[in-house]
Amino acid sequence: MPDRDPRSVLLIDMGGVFFTYAFQQALEHWAQAAGTPAQALHKAWRIDDPFDRFERGEIEPAAYLAHLRRLLHLELDDAQLTAGWNAIYGSVNADLVRLLRTPDVRARFAAVVAVSNTNALHAPAWRRLYERDLDVFDMLVCSHEIGTTKPRPSFFDHICTAHQVPRERLVLVDDIPEVTRAAAALGLTTHTYTDITPLQSFLTTL
C-alpha cells in the first residue's frame, strides 16, 4: 500500500459524538401517532437481524419499515413510521465542531472523516439537519453505503483503501466502549468519547 502522507486519519463517530440522539423519541412519536402506550413499544423494540441488515444496506427502506410495523404491532403508514424513525435527533456538538476547525487539528491529521453505522432513512435526515457543520469533514463514511458496519475490519479497511494508510494510522473517536475496544484490537488508536476536554487532551498526545 503506498505510504504518501505520514499523518494519521481521524475518524469521528456521528451519533453520540458529533450529534446527540435519543431513540426513545422515536418510540414516543409512534406511540402518540398510533394511540398506543409507549411502554408497549419499549418492550417490543429490539435491535435484530433486519436492523443490522438495514444498516449494511441489504434491506430497502420499505422492507425494513414493513418489518418494523410487524415488530411493534403498529398500523402506521410508511410516512408516519419514517417521521418517528427520524424524530431521534438532537443538537450538534458545537465544541467538537470548533475543535475540528482549529489549525492544530487540521495540521495534525491527513484527513478528518465522519463514520456512522446508519441507514438509508437516517442518513438523509441527519445530513439535512447538520448540513452547515458537515463541511468540517473531508469524507463521510456511512455503513449502508459501503455494506459493512463498525467495528468490522472491512469498515476500517474501506477507509484505509480510500486514504492509502494502514489501520495503525487510523484514530477512532467513538462513544461506545465495545466499538473502541474492538477497533483497538484491530490496530487502530482509539478514544472513547465522554466530553470535549478529555478528547482535547487525547489529541495532543498523538
Automatic annotation (TrEMBL):
Pfam families named in the record: Hydrolase
Top-level taxon of origin: Bacteria
Transmembrane segments: none
Organism encoding this protein: Streptomyces lavenduligriseus
InterPro entries: HAD-like_sf, HAD_sf, PGP-like_dom2
Protein name from the UniProt record: Hydrolase of the HAD superfamily
